[in-house]
Backbone:
């Protein structure tokens, strides 16, 4: 039995998120189906984490165990032959039996992309979120400083979560302004359900004057989701990278 | 009755081409449905030309006549409210009664995009064609010179055409190499059915050594489609711009 790690990417538009669900087409269900075809055995994959419907991954990782002795150099090409073009496997490598794609992940980086164009180029309609408001970038940066560090992020988490502990650490949070695009990158050990989308949505609502910046401290203190901004659209969100030791 | 010209763009992936067809979702059918909703009258649009299934338009034009007196500054926003995000209207302006979006077009420019990456980024899976072969760029450029000018393009036209005359003029044909992308731009007064895709496909087949460059002259001489290369995929093709006087 080998334990194999694959690195892959996907455009989330046509999937009901990453995780397998009955009667839904998900990235996991399509990947497992293709692995079963190529390896001729039933494998279950464990990814670094889930992504929601419409959310993309530029670099995602998953492990699985299998008996098949296929060359790991050939596995990506074999899988890509069966996979739809919106899921691509970049490489596969053997990992030791203690490795776990989810629990061994040290840092996950997410990217959130807004476009300030009055009319979004239809070629990008699944890939960016329209920023319809005038926002104060200095306020955005002040909010980002507040988010960094270790906090109780319960107020930045969907009520649909199964999590029981809400303390999370944000190592890094950057903003790039490039032409008419605003690109956030946020890195942490792990994120709660909808956490990045609620953080970004709350910052935008503060920076456009709908909420006061003090709400961030209040959210950390009270855990009250109702004090925050909206959950921004999944289509602007990307799992950007995952780092392992 | 005003005659109105609209400029719009679309991602062709989810449409059975531009032109209205029974029981198919096309760009024209969706646009006309939204115009009818906004204008509260039945209008038919005439575009600069059709595009095939999966083909995109960065700038497409169409005219229609209507009684409704809506401000033309407000029409694009009104339409974009009803249109799906993969079709966007940029502007509307009144044109004189002799103007025709199809017959008044002086130059149409198409773009064809290949990507040489071994694995295509899934975010671009609907937008570029994978170039799987080593090609000789000098040969590509020689072929492009042969295509320019006025020729009988019957051999570069799908047999499904309704055209009766096949003489067309290519004013300009350029190639840009940008990182791992090959970007062709081809301008002419008008193009036959599948003409750009057959021209590009034939050039690639010559530049990878599957066909001899002399086939281009033979194709012009004989009108025999069978002498040419394959029709490359629609997803790499864009209507790039249309010029009117």
Residues:
């Amino acid at each position: 039995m080998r334990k194999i790690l694959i690195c892959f990417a996907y455009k989330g538009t046509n999937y009901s998120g990453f995780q397998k669900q009955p009667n839904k087409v998900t990235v996991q269900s399509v990947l497992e189906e293709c692995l079963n075809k190529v390896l001729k055995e039933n494998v279950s994959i464990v990814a670094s984490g889930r992504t929601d419907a419409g959310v993309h991954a530029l670099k995602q990782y998953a492990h699985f165990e299998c008996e098949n002795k296929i060359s790991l150099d050939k596995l990506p090409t074999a899988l890509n032959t069966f996979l739809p073009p919106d899921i691509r496997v970049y490489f596969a490598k053997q990992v030791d039996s203690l490795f776990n794609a989810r629990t061994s992940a040290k840092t996950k980086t997410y990217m959130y992309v807004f476009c300030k164009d009055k009319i979004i180029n239809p070629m990008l309609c699944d890939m960016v979120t329209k920023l319809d408001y005038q926002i104060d970038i200095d306020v955005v940066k002040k909010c980002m400083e507040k988010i960094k560090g270790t906090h109780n992020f319960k107020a930045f988490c969907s009520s649909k979560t199964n999590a029981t502990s809400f303390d999370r650490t944000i190592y890094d949070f950057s903003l790039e302004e490039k032409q008419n695009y605003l690109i956030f990158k946020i890195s942490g050990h792990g994120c709660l359900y909808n956490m990045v989308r609620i953080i970004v949505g709350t910052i935008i609502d503060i920076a456009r004057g709908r909420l006061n910046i003090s709400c961030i401290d209040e959210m950390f203190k009270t855990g009250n989701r109702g004090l925050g901004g909206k959950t921004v659209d999944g289509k602007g969100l990307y799992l950007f990278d995952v780092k392992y030791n």
